[in-house]
Amino acid sequence: MKKLKNETALFKEAVRVGLVYLSKRGVAEFEATDDLDFKAKAVYTLLVMDKQIQPLPKDRENSQNIRHKLAIWISKLLPANHDLLK
Known about the structure:
This protein is mostly helical. It has 3 helices and no strands.
């Protein structure tokens, strides 16, 4: 698994956008104090259910791989000139 440039920042942006998506779908609401990995798992699960991303194999479904998958997802949605992609 090749690490992306700015992967941590991309992951945080993916969770932020994903939580807005979850909220608009009426699926879940999270508190600011909720665990980031818990939020990421919820975003990942909904994106897989909505066929927005390919699911990870069950034996590779851990927080590190989910973080990477969400970073890839958001990097494809951001415009090419976005600061996180430079």
